[in-house]
């Protein structure tokens, strides 16, 4: 829980909102310095040292890693081993994670390590917390994790930076980690046995990205609902499709909720079934499309929050009872399934909006609005093409989003000499999901232009239905970014502003966002 703009790390619950709030702001974080808690953590680390001195073989402490687990590491090399782990995993490629994504990774890794079953010292936890508070963000390439054995390669960049190696972003500059540590008066860590494995052998990259995906998806749920209300109004649609009683008869609660939001945005005609009796499915079935997302989000959230609050590490160390448990908790199957599912749900929203756009711009379906929603009715109207090209862009973004919905998890392949012979691919699923979200947000930005145009033009028609104050307000909000497209003009910068507004979740919509 964030209290007084401060966040305390210990073995308490960490929610998606906490991850997002800390990653997007500079909330001060601190470790619970209560003796009982610190002693509990320290006992795990002491137990590791006891294992080392006794010489009993324990995986990853005095053995090689992965398939090399039968290589016994002599005592004099045991302290060298952690550095080798993060060093040989320095083979990531691809775009770097963003600053806020890296911060989310650190919060999520802390949440797991703070449970106290990883055999690490409080010092290590304090170093990650210092990185968060100082604003030091390791440069983490996003590609190279199969998501079981955790996110070994991307997390190796966190482990290395904590020890003053590789590169970080600090005060908006890319620099050697060692230099950033010096500038912020932090000493580089020297990892003890098990500590590099504890940092790297977990699902924190895919889970951090999943927190972002969940948050963006939750906002899109509301935004696509509002867009549907506006599209229905612009098309002079039948608001009775969203009748309250009708929705009690098919009681998926998320779907009912979406229908109620649309209903509250529209002024329901007294006479039901006036005008066109049935709208096309992208309008009439919008609660059934967005509702699937609304009903899935709670379980997606519970998968993500279970993962955040799990010990996703191996071996698991119970310092209290002096037990080592060898298992496979680094396997990201739940996140993989949640993100593969979310990809499908979000791409369906893009598809729905693309169809709504097709209705709005086409005089065969838009109930009297001008072709391509062009507002130009002056002497030069013939040269104005309105939103013609915008529709093409929206179709392209939609197709690209749909193309990426192939589940990542079914592409599991045996790797690392068949030790990791079944893997989750959860990190790829999370990354694909974020790309689909980006494309779908672009489609939503395009649709905001279209519904702004469509509603404004409908209001200019002599006989139009009353516009509900909520939609009036949305039109007012949009008019701060958008101007009616009259003569042809390039729309890119307005689309960028809309996209920015979506990413910042600036409209409160149906619930309050930040
Ligand atoms: N995750 C593996 C450990 C591992 C670590 C590093 C590797 O390079 C490979 C495997 C396990 O716990 O079994």
UniProtKB/TrEMBL annotation:
It catalyses: L-tyrosine = (E)-4-coumarate + NH4(+). Gene3D superfamilies: Fumarase/aspartase (Central domain), Fumarase/aspartase (N-terminal domain). The keyword Lyase applies. GO terms for molecular function: tyrosine ammonia-lyase activity. Pfam families: Lyase_aromatic. It comes from the Bacteria. It is an enzyme of class 4 (lyase). PROSITE patterns: PAL_HISTIDASE. Keywords: Lyase. Its EC number is 4.3.1.23. GO terms for biological process: secondary metabolite biosynthetic process. InterPro entries: Aromatic_Lyase, Fumarase/histidase_N, L-Aspartase-like, Phe/His_NH3-lyase_AS. This is tyrosine ammonia-lyase. It comes from Methylotenera versatilis (strain 301). The lineage of its organism: Bacteria, Pseudomonadati, Pseudomonadota, Betaproteobacteria, Nitrosomonadales.
């Amino acid at each position: 829980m964030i209290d007084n703009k401060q966040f305390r790390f210990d073995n308490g619950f960490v929610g998606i909102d906490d991850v997002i709030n800390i990653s997007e702001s500079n909330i001060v974080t601190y470790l619970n310095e209560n003796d009982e808690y610190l002693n509990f953590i320290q006992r795990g680390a002491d137990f590791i040292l006891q294992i080392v001195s006794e010489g009993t073989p324990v995986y990853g402490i005095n053995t090689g890693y992965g398939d090399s687990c039968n290589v016994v590491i002599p005592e004099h090399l045991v302290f060298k081993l952690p550095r080798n782990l993060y060093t040989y995993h320095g083979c990531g490629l691809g775009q770097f994670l963003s600053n806020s994504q890296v911060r989310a990774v650190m919060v999520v890794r802390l949440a797991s390590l703070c449970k106290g079953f990883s055999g690490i010292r409080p010092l290590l936890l304090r170093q990650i917390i210092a990185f968060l508070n100082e604003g030091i963000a390791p440069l983490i390439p996003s590609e190279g994790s199969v998501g079981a054995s955790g996110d070994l390669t991307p997390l190796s960049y966190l482990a290395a930076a904590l020890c003053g190696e590789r590169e970080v972003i600090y005060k908006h500059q890319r620099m050697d980690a060692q230099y950033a540590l010096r500038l912020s008066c932090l000493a580089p860590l020297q990892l003890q046995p098990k500590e590099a494995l504890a940092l790297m052998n977990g699902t924190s990259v895919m889970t951090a990205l999943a927190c972002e995906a969940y948050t963006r998806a939750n906002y899109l749920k509301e935004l696509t609902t509002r867009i549907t209300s506006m599209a229905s109004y612009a098309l002079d649609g039948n608001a009775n499709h969203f009748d309250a009683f009708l929705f009690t008869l098919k009681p998926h609660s998320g779907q009912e909720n979406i229908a109620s939001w649309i209903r509250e945005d529209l002024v329901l005609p007294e006479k039901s079934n006036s005008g066109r009796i049935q709208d096309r499915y992208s309008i009439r079935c919008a609660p059934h499309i967005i509702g699937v997302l609304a009903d899935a989000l709670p379980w997606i959230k519970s998968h993500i929050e279970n993962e955040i609050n799990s010990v996703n590490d191996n071996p698991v160390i119970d310092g209290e009872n002096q037990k080592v448990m060898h298992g496979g908790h680094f396997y990201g199957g739940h996140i993989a399934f949640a993100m593969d599912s979310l990809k499908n749900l979000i791409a369906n929203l893009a598809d729905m909006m693309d169809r709504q756009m097709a209705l709005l711009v086409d005089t065969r379906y838009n109930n009297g609005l001008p072709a391509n929603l062009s507002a130009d009715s002056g002497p030069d109207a013939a040269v104005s093409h309105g939103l013609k090209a915008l529709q093409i862009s929206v179709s392209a973004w939609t197709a690209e989003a749909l193309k990426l919905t192939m589940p990542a998890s079914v592409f599991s392949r045996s790797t690392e000499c068949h030790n990791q012979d079944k893997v989750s691919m959860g990190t790829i699923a999370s990354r694909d999901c974020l790309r689909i979200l980006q494309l779908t947000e672009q489609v939503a930005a395009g649709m905001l232009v279209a519904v702004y145009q469509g509603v404004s033009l409908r209001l200019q028609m002599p006989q139009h239905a009353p516009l509900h104050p909520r939609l009036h307000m949305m039109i007012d909000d949009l008019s701060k970014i958008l101007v009616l497209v009259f003569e042809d003009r390039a729309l890119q910068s307005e689309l960028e502003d809309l996209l920015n507004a979506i990413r910042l979740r600036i409209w409160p919509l149906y619930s309050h966002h930040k």
